[in-house]
Amino acid sequence: MNVLPNLLIVDDTKLNLRLIETIIKDIRINVIKALSGAEALKKTKGIELALAIIDVHMPKMSGYELAIKLNEDRKEAKVPIIFVTANHFDKVEEFKGYDSGAVDYIFKPINDFILQSKIKVFLDLYNQKQIIIQNSALLEKFANELSSSNLALRESEEKFRGYVNNAPNGIFVTDETGKYLDVNKAASKITGYSGDELLTMSLWNLLTEDSLKEAQLQFEKLINTGLLKSDLAFNHKNGAKRWWTLEAVRLSEDRFLCFTKDITIRKEMEEAMKVQQSELEKQNEKLTVAIKKVQIASEKYAELYNFAPTGYLTLSPEKIIQDLNHSGVHILGKERSQLINIPFDKFISRQTLPVFNDFFKNIFESNTKGICEIILNKVTTPPKYLHIEGMVAGNGEQCLINVVDITERKQAEQALEEGRKKYKIMLEASPDGILIINLRGIIEEISEIGLELLGASKKGDVIGKHYLRFVPSEEQNTIQGAIEKTMSEGIAQNIEITIRKINQSLFLSEVSLTLIQTPDGAISSFMITIRDISLRKKMEKKQIHADRMASLGEMASGIAHEINQPLNTISLVMDNILYECSKDKSIGKDYLQKKIEKIFENIIRIKNIIDHIRAFSRNHDEYISTGLDINTSIRNALTMISEQLKHQAIELNLQLLEKPPLINGNTFKFEQVILNLLLNAKDALLEKKEKQPAFSNMFIGIKSFLENQNMVIEITDNGTGISEEDVDYIMLPFYTTKDTGKGTGLGLPISYQIIKEMNGNIEIISSPSIGTTFKIVIKVQNK
């Protein structure tokens, strides 16, 4: 199994680390991340690094200091270092970086393509170094094993050693059945199969039918004599028939070491030579020299052409294909024999043919390198796009071009363009303001409504600026928390924050954030939706106050009952005193003191009721939320309605939790919720009494308890209940089940809003004609 090379990324900002990681996600490499120089040294101790990308300016330990410490004990295995900086600097600073071990610099903002290209270059150098080390070790192993063989094998050892060192030969090991046990990269390149694929196959799976019998005979000879050398035809993974020369020796009783080299070009030339055999025999001496030159050219061609990932083609000035490598064959999608001596422009679509003709003409006329993009005329879905670079060679007699398939990149660009069109339509059609920000927090796009909300006259006033410029400092933690939630969950909704306009005025908004990802799942940007809720908030405050006053109006007769009882008590006490005075005997001081205390006790009770009603009826918009005791709030609400319930023969049952935890909120608003639910319960009981005169056991229960770190308050009645249809709509504004003139339809929606502000929820459990339970669930805060 190939071990991925290690890449170290060091930056003291998490967002920068995540950005670099996103850019290089498609590169096969093991990433080690660190937020400081100390953490980087700790994580990389004893680990071989292919490359390090280090931020220059970091606290405690700068990038230069880290680079020096990183390479102190690495001797010859020095780590190449790319420094990242946001500032362009002078030569002194630049040489300081190179003295610290730098091989290159990257400037912020980071260009994705430049960073990827530089990393790939250093990884190629690292991989070539590893291949050299591995080949050296492999050759040493082969030399040790071959040293115990016979004299002929020892003589061939030097030949094979030079062959392996100087040519891209394939090397593999098989057992006595021909099954692959080990392969090198060159063997994979020759066959077109990966190393893992070859290890599931045998030598016989690749050979053509014509070569199979010959190879099996040769393999039996190898088993008997320990030596094999033969030219065999095999099927490349792309379906093309190719040739290789196979040399093998015995390593052990059931192990054979094999060397291969692609000799397809040589074989094709040998086939051509057979046709001219008579003439070749007459020019044998010249032919020997020519064959040697062809062999040398074949080896160079195989090394530089056949195994390159880029397609290479040689064209004549008439655009005729003279030669091409494996990648070129694969890109054009035909057999190699069907491509040689064919005009290259035959494969180009009509729409891009003028582009290619101009490109070809310019490089011959100016004798400079040229670049263009074309589409193949082969009918495929989607079309195949090619990037071409070319230059003139051979004294103007040839054109060398390299071809890269960029179809996937073009598809991505087209998909991106389609996406841009769609979100452009969405931006302009949305009734809310929409901003698109990148991973660095820079605003990249804004809708017309967004411009209006921020008070900007044109997009240039906003685009290119950091979004925090429009967020007051006291709200920045809130919006940063929303972004972190969006990063982890993909979305964050309905967050109330204050927004600062360009003219520095403020307005209350409700924002929602959505993560925007590329098709492969990488994070690209955020979409922020802004809604101005200043007017809505004012209306909500007015509605809450109006509902509170409506509740007081509805309780007017009940409040009279609350005050009437202490007044009656005072009246009785006074009558008793007057009666005692009418007698012809003096009144005792203790008696009079006791009666006066009774009078003042009831006067204070009346005063408390009136004070609480006055406080309850005020507008509490400026009230600061604090820790409230729900039992106290429940009892305060009952002081305004308990006598009314008693007068109407409604039984009240309290089961309150002793010493409940404090809940953060507005005590008067919470009383408004309790009062509203009690009034609804009372109306439901009286309505049932009116429909069923025999119904007499009217009951309201109030219960508080803890459940799963939540404070729960249940208000239950055995009244008319709520139908299943009404339960789904009863929390909507202006929806009421009461008769016309008996309800506003605001009580429950406002109560629900108040509980939501307290980080809670209201659940309804109801059965028609049986009763209803309103369950208030509020999360208990740690603070």
Keywords:
five-stranded antiparallel beta sheet; 783 residues; alpha+beta; elongated; five-stranded parallel beta sheet; 27 strands
Topology:
Blueprint: E1 6-10, H1 14-23, E2 30-34, H2 37-44, E3 51-55, H3 63-70, E4 81-85, H4 91-99, E5 102-107, H5 112-146, H6 151-166, E6 170-174, E7 180-183, H7 185-191, H8 195-198, H9 203-206, H10 209-225, E8 227-235, E9 241-252, E10 255-262, H11 264-275, H12 277-282, H13 284-306, E11 311-315, E12 321-324, H14 326-332, H15 353-366, E13 370-375, E14 385-393, E15 398-405, H16 407-429, E16 433-438, E17 443-446, H17 448-454, H18 476-489, E18 491-500, E19 506-517, E20 523-532, H19 534-554, H20 556-582, H21 589-617, E21 626-628, H22 630-639, H23 642-647, E22 651-655, E23 663-665, H24 667-691, E24 699-707, E25 710-717, H25 724-727, H26 747-757, E26 760-767, E27 771-779
Describe what is shown at a glance.
With 783 residues, this protein is an alpha+beta fold. Helices cover 46% and strands 23% of the residues.
Word description of this protein:
Strand 11 and strand 12 form a beta hairpin. Helix 24 packs antiparallel against helix 26 (747-757). The chain has a five-stranded parallel beta sheet, with helices on both faces. Strands 7-6-10-9-8 form a five-stranded antiparallel beta sheet, sandwiched between helices. The chain has a five-stranded antiparallel beta sheet with strand order 12-11-15-14-13. The two termini are 53 Å apart. The protein is built from 26 helices and 27 strands. 46% of the residues lie in helices and 23% in strands. It has 783 residues and is an alpha+beta fold.
